[in-house]
Amino acid sequence: xxxxxxxxxxxxxxxxxxxCQWIGVIGLRKSGRKAEWLLMLIGVIMTTLGMLAQFGYFLxxxxxxxxxxxxxxxxxxxxxxxxxxxxxxxxxxxxxHGTRNSRITQRTTELEMMNLAQAxxxxxxxxx
Length: 128
Description:
The chain is mainly α.
């Protein structure tokens, strides 16, 4: 499998995921810019930059012969690590966002139950 076709295969999976992440981050920006949103934004930016650097490397690899010696394997590992850290940052932000929303939903349910209990108690007192 050639280098470009392997990047194409990975891109088939990674690019749609990256697009979904960008849509999610843009959609959440209106709900308040909290720490979890910032983590997700930083993660998406890092992943995008890593992916663009990898794509630039592969384009340079195919179109210039001198480019091959300029980029070392260590540089490609660093670019891959950038993408991996971006994904990790997004995942942490997403987990924090999910637990925050879960707590909000749980608290809303508790308040609704208290409201119902108070309404029931008031009705019972009125009927005395």
